[in-house]
């Protein structure tokens, strides 16, 4: 294993951001290669501890000569967001200088050619970071971006061009659900990883061996040793299943038994009032159209001080908010509906 330190110039003299990159060399140049990163949203830590649990497994495989394809690992992908605090509260989702989500505004290249990357020398530190992450990841057959939701199931975002070819990966990771998407106008990291292959020759795209996904490891508070070990085992099974790591003790993944839902079926369910949330449902619950999802207490103690929110269609609860205070118009939860949402959103579901 080799460790290097990446340095990103800040927006003023004397400011530099650093993050480590770990590389495991493969023994077979024809084998698939893999890139894993965590904490692009710097406060989302389940992926960080999963990588921590995975690293000894990769080190053992390397020592035994079982890493066939090169593996690149970035456990802390966002040193800028990691350093951001406002009045004592960590702020890792948006760059405070530009107000841009750290998982937006990645360059969407027309082809997998690093020469097409824009010049960021006069841009901000966040754009330099995003450009460097694309440089580190582009060209790998497997690209995994590890995130988490507020409170939720374990699920994957997968581009329609990779489904159902990636069903074995979803099974290996034992995801509860898969959300399929087809359009990226906001420049997510996943989009920057798959869109360059959409209009190139089949021999370059190689969709049969390509794996690109945003992994949502449940919720913000699911930072736990047992969960980290389980998630690391899932990552390892995926690498074995796709031929990056050789390990005859790991059986082939069984069929994926989770739910597959188009992104357009997701109902985000905005709150009609500001106040305190009393949830009637939790992630994984099945609901019918008209079932009560939550009650908003907006004027406590007063007549008509509560407003109920009902399911716009049948489906299951994918996620909900971890905090119980909400403003009018903010999303209460993700309802994975049986049908297309009446408020269907293409691209990203939230800011």
TrEMBL record:
UniProt entry tagged with the keyword Hydrolase: yes
Keywords: Hydrolase, Metal-binding, Zinc
Record InterPro entries: AstE_AspA_cat, N-alpha-Ac-DABA_deacetylase
Keyword Amino-acid biosynthesis: no
Pfam family, any one: AstE_AspA_cat
CC cofactor: Zn(2+)
Domain Succinylglutamate desuccinylase/Aspartoacylase catalytic: residue ranges: 31-194
Name the UniProt record assigns to this protein: Succinylglutamate desuccinylase/aspartoacylase family protein
């Amino acid at each position: 294993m080799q460790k290097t330190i990446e340095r990103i110039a800040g927006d003023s003299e004397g400011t530099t951001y650093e993050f480590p990159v770990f590389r495991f060399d493969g023994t077979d140049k024809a084998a698939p290669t893999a890139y894993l990163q965590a904490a692009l949203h710097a406060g989302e830590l389940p992926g960080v501890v999963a990588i921590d649990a995975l690293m000894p497994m990769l080190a053992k495989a390397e020592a035994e000569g079982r890493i066939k394809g090169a593996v690149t690992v970035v456990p802390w992908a966002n040193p800028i967001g990691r350093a951001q605090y406002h009045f004592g509260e960590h702020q890792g989702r948006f760059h405070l200088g530009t107000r841009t989500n750290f998982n937006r505004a990645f360059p969407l290249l027309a082809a997998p050619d690093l020469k097409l990357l824009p010049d960021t020398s006069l841009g901000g530190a966040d754009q330099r970071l995003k450009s460097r992450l694309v440089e580190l990841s582009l060209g790998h057959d497997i690209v995994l971006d590890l995130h988490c939701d507020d409170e939720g199931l374990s699920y994957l975002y997968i581009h329609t061009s990779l489904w159902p070819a990636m069903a074995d990966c979803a099974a290996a990771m034992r995801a509860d659900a898969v959300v399929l998407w087809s359009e990226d106008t906001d420049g997510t990291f996943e989009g920057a990883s798959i869109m360059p292959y959409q209009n190139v020759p089949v021999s370059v795209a190689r969709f049969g061996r390509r794996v690109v996904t945003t992994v949502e490891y449940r919720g913000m508070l699911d930072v736990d040793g047992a969960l980290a070990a389980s998630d690391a085992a899932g990552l390892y099974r995926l690498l074995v299943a796709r031929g990056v790591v050789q390990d005859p003790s790991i059986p082939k993944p069984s069929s994926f038994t989770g739910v597959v839902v188009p992104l357009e079926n997701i109902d985000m369910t905005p709150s009609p009032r500001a106040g305190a949330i009393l949830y009637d449902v939790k992630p994984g619950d099945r609901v019918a159209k008209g079932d009560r999802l939550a009650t908003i207490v907006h004027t406590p103690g007063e007549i008509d001080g509560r407003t109920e929110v009902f399911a716009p269609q049948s489906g299951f609860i994918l996620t909900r908010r971890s905090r119980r205070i909400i403003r009018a118009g903010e999303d209460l939860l993700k309802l994975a509906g049986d049908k297309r949402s009446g408020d269907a959103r293409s691209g990203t579901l939230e800011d």
